[in-house]
UniProtKB/TrEMBL annotation:
Keywords: DNA-binding, Transcription, Transcription regulation
Annotation: DNA-binding region: 35-54
GO function terms (MF aspect): DNA-binding transcription factor activity; transcription cis-regulatory region binding
Domain (HTH tetR-type) ranges: 12-72
SUPFAM superfamilies xref list: Homeodomain-like
Name of the protein in its database record: Transcriptional regulator, TetR family
Pfam families: TetR_C_14, TetR_N
Length: 191
């Protein structure tokens, strides 16, 4: 095995240990009662090692979004669709990938987010941070009045998406996530 492959495997294993330790400790003691030092100790790493992987405790559960991954899905949606429909179709593709590769972890993550106010705040911060980057991918011109309106629509769609994920967690994943997304987007259309 090449030296670089070994290092990558070691980094991935450490990240998984930190994440698993955080999830277990938060589930057992509550989010506020768990410190970064607690997580590092449970994962058998130092606090500086924790910070080499995550900026904050919140980032263990809700890391920065992979905007390139999200953008890739959204950029493949038909440009002639209305903006909310493009986003909904892109979300369906994202959910299909989550269902295939990370369903259990995603449910667990969103159950923690749903249960903890600090993590819900972080989820909404991620949502707002994503809007600008996704606007560019979707061809929204932020300098125009129409572009400003589209950013409002985009933000509402992202909020609908977050709401769907939280509702999904509330059912422990028993309701299909795409169904919950569609319900949230139907609610948006009724406004």
């Amino acid at each position: 095995m090449a030296q670089q492959d070994w290092r990558a495997l070691k980094r991935d294993a450490t990240r998984r240990r930190l994440t698993e330790s955080a999830y277990e400790l938060i589930a057992e003691h509550g989010y506020e009662a768990v410190s970064v030092a607690d997580i590092a100790e449970a994962a058998d790493v130092s606090v500086p090692t924790f910070y080499a992987y995550f900026r904050t405790k919140e980032h263990v559960v809700l890391p920065d979004q992979d905007l390139a991954w999200i953008s890739g899905h959204l950029s493949r949606t038909p440009a002639d669709l209305p903006l909310p429909e493009r986003i909904r179709v892109g979300l369906h593709a994202i959910v299909a990938e989550i269902e295939q590769h990370a369903r259990a972890e995603s449910i667990r993550r969103w159950e923690l987010v749903r249960a903890e106010p600090a993590l819900r705040r972080r989820a909404y911060e991620r949502e707002r941070a994503s809007a600008g980057a996704l606007a560019e991918v979707l061809g929204v011109d932020l300098a125009t009045s129409e572009g400003a309106a589209d950013v409002v629509v985009l933000s509402a769609c992202l909020s609908a998406s977050t709401t769907a994920f939280l509702r999904w967690a509330g059912t422990s994943g028993t309701r299909p996530l795409v169904e919950l997304i569609d319900e949230a987007f139907t609610a948006l259309r009724s406004i």
